[in-house]
Every structure is written in structure tokens, then in C-alpha cells.
Amino acid sequence: MALPVRKFDAVIVGAGGAGMRASLQLAEAGLKVAVLSKVFPTRSHTVAAQGGIGASLGNMGEDSWLWHMYDTIKGSDYLGDQDAIEFMCRMAPQAVIELEHFGMPFDRNDDGTVYQRPFGGHSQNFGERPVQRSCCAADRTGHAMLHTLYQRNVRANTLFFVEWMALDIIRDPSGQVLGVTAMEMETGEIWIFHARATLFATGGAGRIFSASTNAFINTGDGLGMAARAGIPLEDMEFWQFHPTGVAGAGVLITEGVRGEGGYLLNKDGERFMERYAPTMKDLASRDVVSRAMATEIKEGRGAGKEADYILLKLDHLGLDVIEKRLPGIREIAKKFANVDPVKDPIPVVPTCHYQMGGIPTNYHGEVVVPAGGNPNSVVPGFYAAGECACASVHGANRLGTNSLTDLLVFGRASGDSVIRFLQENPGHKDLPKDAGDYSVQRVARLDGQTGGESVFEVGAEMRRTMQAHCGVFRFPDMLQSGVAKIKAVAERAKRTEIKDKSKTFNTARVEALELDNLIEVAVATLVSADARQESRGAHDRADFAKRDDVNWLKHTLWYREGSRLEYKPVNLKPLTAQTFEPKVRSY
Amino acid sequence: MKFRIYRYDPDKDAQPYMRDYDIALEPTDRMLLDALVRIKAEDDSLSLRRSCREGVCGSDAMNINGRNGLACITRLADLKEPVELRPLPGLPVIRDLIVDMSQFFKQYHSIKPYLRNDAAPPSPDKERLQSPAEREELDGLYECILCACCSTSCPSFWWNPDKFVGPAGLLAAYRFIADTRDQATSERLDDLEDPYRLFRCHSIMNCVDVCPKGLNPTRAIGKIKDLMVRRMT
Amino acid sequence: MVKRIVVGAHYGLRDWLVQRITAVVMAAFALLMLFIVLFHRPEHYGAWKALMSQQWMRLASLLFLLALFWHAWIGVRDVFMDYIKPAGLRLLLLVGVVLLLVAYALWSVQILWSLY
Q1: Is C62 within the bounds of a domain?
Q2: How near does any CA of chain A get to the CA of B41, in Å?
Q3: CA proximity to B38, closest of B61, B22, B54, B15
Q4: How do residues A524-536 score in pLDDT, each as one tens digit?
Q5: For the whole model, what pTM was predicted?
Q6: How many whole angstroms separate alpha carbon A45 and alpha carbon A36?
């Protein structure tokens, strides 16, 4: 069946922070760009980011991009690529200033400069003491940033395709990416978006876990599409568990609470982080804090009737600070935890929050795969930025605030790379004859399925499996049985059935297609985690308690075909700075 | 728990109708959205928008027992049974609880919702300065999530959705007027000085009553009018 | 025919302001009347007639009535703008309202100045 075709210079999938920073670059360069999004742009998950954007502006005291770079590398447990990290940290101040010029309502200091707050893992002079580096708009930084970027795109007349879900990547026999197929949710129609360059900014897949701070839309669509198109997924075993998700609800409580002076208590009222991280205490990096919390709970020092959560105390900050710097947190705590943090501590637990891995890219946002002996050979016409990409700046553990920095810096960089590519490669390449057939088949399979399984049930089983087998602490037997289990769930996902056959805004169909993407990510995660025999960053194994730089200082690459793994070296060579050699990590 | 939900699928229904659901909830289901997700697990044909499930993305606005609100931050315990759910009033229904929001966004776009300042920044690598007091002017304005609860509870918007900017758009307009970095105040006031665009607002404050973020569009509209008077006199 | 949405008449502020000012005038007059009723207590027709036929009272009453008509004009026009969508019909009704209000105004003058 021949699908209708729309032609663009570039197609961007995803209208969150990275997608809209990239689209702005392209639209302002006068290119014909289409931005596809499952939701209206300001509903993208960037909107939920709270604490701030990391950049060494030095508005609150001395700071430098080199310190930011060191903190990021140390935070990544040395798995981050040092060229990409240097690039991000050097570009971060410019990215923030640019955003300010776009109209972002940053909080201010008395001298009129952007206010910055302390954040986990960010330090002065290579780990000496905490530094104020996080540029914020109260505790609604992501919201303010996403709206500012959308507004700037409105000014630039960017063309948005709102409520369109991308289905599959179109590649020609040489491997070049020529666009995507996408479904208009309102009508159920499938179109081909034929583009000279395709950029994925599809976000993460935090919805593979039952307890997640992530939005319903975070279903790893870009990762699923890439995996089906034969592109490997990098470092998928590394998932960040945010220390402070509201217990039971999963809603995020920003690390900014601890940045502003809040701290964690166990049931005895002990400020236990002093034991685990004497220097940075509650502002150690997230993997460290989450593990400490999980240990406290495991050893019976959790609070509550079931001793299953930790208390986040901030009442001592006073009403004024809370109202000025953390108003959204107060709102969330009242609504989702039934406590007013002005008086009582908030019950929190480590909750799945961020995907460090993703589609492998270099620091230009170009997607790279091993080919012809080169572990980082560029896939022509294909770009990725933001949470769906793995540049890799976050390595085995991301620092708080670096996600928004990542969106801005690599959103822009990938946009610039697309512009260069379009200048060098004029004209559309012909679509292969069977372009779109695969997507049509997938949707036809779903619509025609009888006697199949409920999407909800299969999804729930996937989430339970991930939660039980691949959480904060990982055990060899659980990982092994998890791999078998998740592969069985993946088999079941091939036979999902929906009762709703309507063409009009069929969200059941959308959810079924999302599950196809989630399940790729879930399998990649468990298989990669089972294989990595060390503890590094967010990946903590009971049987290999130490980091092993001799054997495992390398990136995992998971291929969908046969669930095969390959590895590639970590780039330890920065662009201009000296290499930060791996050393023991303590906070 | 009992629910009555507005259902309409143009592919098969000649007319919209209300469908009853009686659903067993788990203790962890605290918000209306939790119940809707559970209903959808049983009847996958129920269509609604949702995303962040914490009240910041603005997707799941709907009419809940006669009042506009976000399903994800509406407590089930506070609702009278049967909980009657309808799409946001005054906008065309696409299907079930999903409305066509084009008109709403068109009005938002019409106020040129972006910082207008043609002067080059003092330096490309320095921020434009703004005092904390100047920044505070934006509080209560920039937090809008464009959920449309306000505009679709406003009779003036129901009667003139094509001409009246509506509370959300006007709040956004004032957000830029109030920003010391924006230089287009007089153009913005010119654009709004119109019997329809701004002055359909008769300050009945339905918008204030329903805003899930506790914002006050009526006050912002009042401030726009103040500026217009000050400009004239 | 293509439906065009036309806005930008640039008279909203004046009318909005007029509505507020006329409301203040009406409120002031209402207070004046309240004061008279409470403290002057004109108890029979003669007293009322004497009050109303003073020149300052005529002017005040006229000011009140004109404010009322102007206020009503804006209010009624707003209602028509909301509910009467066909432009031709709306124009016709608006002209009717104007004529009626002008007639009321003239009639008011006649009544006020015919008292002796």
C-alpha cells in the first residue's frame, strides 16, 4: 500500500526541550522543518523538570566549566565520554544566557543576575565543597524553559504536527535515514514524512518501571524505532533512581529541596547521609543518595508503619523560603502526600527517574554505530538529542540539572549539525519502494488481532518485572530470571489486542504501539544489566560490589536482532582539557 | 465507585451519550486520573488525554461534576457519586473527553506570546539584568499550563471564541507586558484595545474559580485595563 | 463566502471607562436621593414637586438619566454582541436601541422641565 508523503528538509520527532531547541535553530535558519509530537509541545515531559539548569555562570561565587566537567565525569562514574562532557559544560553558560534572552523567567539575585542554587554532586574546585550552579525559576524550571522555547518557536513560525505519533524510521539500503512514518492520532491516518535529515528528541522510557516519576508519554518511542531499524541502544542498564519521589505516588520532589537546605531523616530522626557522604551529605550524587536510602529501608530504619519510606525534612527553611523557592513542592506535597512541608516532613522513596542510556551519538548529535571497524561511524541523515540520546554525557549516573543542560546544548548542536548536513547534501534521496510497509503491517496486525492479550496486562507485567528484577540493588539470580521473564513478556507483547477499532483518536491503539517501544527498552535494559559484571553509578550488583575499570570501562551496545551485545570504548580524551583519570568516587 | 462519562465516537455514534461505570478501586488510587486509567484498562475505547499525572502538563482538563479541573490532581475522596465527567465545555468534541483545542491555542498565539525586544542584549554572554522585585511581577503569570480550564468556563469565550482572547491568552499577554525585558507594551495594548479581544471580559471570575494552578486571570486583565487608562490620561 | 473574523475596532477602552464613570454618577445620585429621603423626608406630593423643580435638582436628575442611558447603551450593545450573531440584524437592533434611548433622553428633559 502506498502511503501519502509529505516532504521536508528536516523532520524532528519530539517537541520537548531538545526537539524545540533544535527546531528553533532550523526554523530560524529558514529551513522547512516539521516537528512531530504526540502531545501539544508544552505538555512534553521537560515541563516536569523542577530544580534547575546546570551552568557555571559563577553568579553566586567562583565557578568554572572545568569544575562542572569534573563533577559530571565523577558523577558519571567515569563512564561518560569526556569530549562530550567538555563540550556540554563549556557551552552550558551560553545556552542559559541564550534562554534568558529568549525570555525565560529565571529567579534573580539582588544585582539582577540569574539566581543559582546548590545541587547534588556539583562542587567547587574538584569536589572541595558544594557550589551554587543550578539556574532556576523557583521549582518550575522545566515548565518555564519549555514554555519559553515553545514561545520562541511560535515567533520563528516553526511548523508543528501536534498529536502525531512517529511509528518507524525509514532507511534506504545504504543505511541512510530518509524520514519516518507517523500516524495522525485524530484520524488514524499514516503518512510518510520524507526528510533529508531526521532528528529524534523523543525523550526517555521511564514508564518501563512501575514506580516512576515519568509522564505517561515517556514510552521510549525513539528507542523502539531505532532498535527496530537495526540501530543499537547504548548503556541501557543505567537508570537513575531519583532519591525523592513521593512515596506511593511516584511524583517528583526536586533535589532543589536539599539544595535549599532540606535533608533526609530515617525513622530515628538521624540525618543518615552524614554517614554515607561526609562532605556533600544530602547533596551527594543521586545514585549514592538513593542507595543510602534503600540501605536504610532495607536495614529496618525506614519510617512509617511498614518502615518503607524516608523522611524529607524542610520545615526549618521557613515559610518564606518555601513559598519563594519551592512553591510547587508545597503544592505537590499537600496534594500527593497529604502533608504541608512547612510543618511536616515529606515521605519519599527512590523512584525511577531518568534513562542515562539511549541512541548512541557523538557530541554533534549525529547518531553513531559500529561499522567497518569504527565503533563510532556516523549514520547519515540521523540525529538524536536529549534523554533519548546517549552522547554520552551522563555515563552511569546523571547529575541533577544536567538533563536540562543536555537538552539545550545538544538540542542546539544537533540542529547546527543538521544545517551543515543539509548544506552538504542537497535534494531528497528516493524512498525505497517498501517504505512504510512495515508500519502499515504493524498497525494492521494490531487491528486484526483476535484472541490476543490486553495491552494493560502485558504492560503491567513488564513494569512489575522491571521493578522487581532491575531496581536500585541488583542481584545475579534476579537479573538472570528477569531476562527470561522479560523476554517472555516481549513475546506476549507481539500478540496484544485492542477492542477499540475506531479511526478517531484511538488512544488504545496509541498505547499498544507505545508498548511495542517500551518492551524493546525493557529487554535492552535487563539484558545489558545482566551482562555488566561490576557496580558502576546507578548499576549496583550484589555479586560485583566494585567498579571494574580493567574489564568494564566500556559502553554497552544492545542490538534488537538476537538481543546481541557489543561493547565500545569510553572516550577518555576531552577536546582541550586534560583527561580525568578514573579514581575512587566518594562524596 | 460510580462514574457517568460522556461518550462520543463519531465513527460509530450518531449522538453523544452518558455511560455508567462502576469500578473497584485500589487503596493506591487517590486521584480521578487513577480511576480513569483503571476504567480504561477495562474499556479501552474510553479516550482521554493525559501525561504528567501531577498537574504541570495541562493535558487532562475536563468537566468534573460540572466544574472544570485536572483529573490528575482532583482527589477521588472529594467527589460526589456518581462522578459525572464531560469534555471541556464550549469547544468542539473530537471524541469522548477529547476536545479540539485549536481555537484556544489560536487565541493564545494571537497575543504574540514571546518576548519582544529588538535591542541587542548588553552582551551575548551576559544576561539582561532584572531585579528580584521586577521578576516577582511575573509570579502568578508565567505558571500557566494552558490546560484551558479557565477559558472554557468563561461565558464570554463560549459566545465569542473566535474574537475574545479569553482568560488564558490575556494572562499570557500581561505576562509579557509585566516583563521589564519586553519592549512591546504599547503594541500589545494597541492589539488588545478592542471591544472583543479584551473587553468581552466582564469580570465574573469563573476563570479564577477553576484555575487548577490558583492563578488569577481577572486580576491580570484588570491590570491591562489599568495600563490602558494610564496611557490614555 | 469566506468567513472573516474581524477585530481591532479600537474603542473598547473608552466604552469600558464610560461604563465605570456613568456607574459612579448613578451611584452618587442614588446616595443623594437616599440622603434626601432619610434626612429631608419629603412626605407629600408638594414637597417632592418643590424638590424636583429646583434647577440644581433638574440638572442632577438629567445627569443621572443621561448616565443611565449611556450605561444601558453599552450594556445592551455588549449583550447583543454576545448573542446576536448576524451583523445586519445586530446593526438594526442597535440602531433601534439608540433611537429609543435618544427618545428617552428627550422625554426626560421634557418631564423634568415641565414641572412648576
Answers
A1: yes
A2: 6
A3: B22
A4: 999 999 999 999 9
A5: 0.96
A6: 15
Task: Identify the active-site residue in A133, A286, A330, A398.
Answer: A286
Please choose, from the candidates A509, B163, B44, the residue with its C-alpha nearest in 3D space to the C-alpha of residue C7: B163
| Average predicted confidence (pLDDT) for chain A | 96
B130 touches chain A (CB under 8 A): yes
Find the mean pLDDT for residues A273-281. Answer: 95
pLDDT at C42: 83
Only one residue has cell 484511538, namely A506
Q: What is the pLDDT of residues A289-322, one digit of tens each?
A: 999 999 999 999 999 999 999 999 999 999 999 9
Among all residues of chain B, which has the CA nearest to that of C78?
Answer: B200
C-alpha torsion sign, points A128, A134, A135, A137: negative
Task: Report the alpha-carbon distance of residue A54 to residue A46 in Å, rounded.
Answer: 15
Assigned C-alpha cell, C54: 429646583
Q: Are strands A159-162 and A33-37 parallel, antiparallel or unpaired?
A: parallel
Give the list of residues 6+ apart from residue A228 with CB closer than 8 angstroms, or none: A168, A169, A438, A520, A560
Which residue range is the domain that position C25 belongs to?
Answer: 13-113
Strands A159-162 and A346-355 come out as: unpaired
The whole-number pLDDT of residue C1 equals: 56
Instruction: With CB atoms and an 8 Å threshold, state whether B57 touches A43.
Output: yes
How far is the C-alpha of B85 from the C-alpha of B4, rounded, in Å?
6
Place of cell 488569577: B216
Residue-level pLDDT at A1: 56
Cα distance from A20 to chain B (closest Cα, Å)?
14
Q: Is A286 designated active site?
A: yes
* Total tally of structural domains belonging to chain C: 1
The crossing angle, in degrees rounded to 10, of helices A507-531 and A221-228 is 70
Whether C4 is in a domain gets the answer no
CATH code of the domain in which C22 resides? 1.20.1300.10
Task: For chain B, list residues with pLDDT below 50.
Answer: none
pLDDT, tens digit, 9 for 90 and up, residues A90-115: 999 999 999 999 999 999 999 999 99
In order of C43, C55, C68, C69, C102, the CA distances from C114 in angstroms are 21, 12, 21, 20, 18
* CB of B155 less than 8 A from some CB of A: no
Helix A455-469 with A476-493: angle, nearest 10 deg? 170
Interface test with B, best of C4, C6, C13 (most B CBs within 10 A): C13
* Contact flag B159-C83 (C-beta cutoff 8 Å): yes
Q: How far apart are CA B224 and CA B217, in angstroms?
A: 11
Report CB contact under 8 Å: C15, B195.
yes
Answer whether residue C3 is part of any domain: no
Residue with cell 484555575: B211
Could you tell me which chain A residue has the CA closest to the CA of B33? A216
Mutation pick from A500, A510, A511, A513 vs chain B, by most beta carbons of B within 10 Å, is A500
What is the predicted ipTM? 0.98
Is C6 within a domain?
A: no
Q: Cβ separation of A43 and B143 shorter than 8 Å? A: no
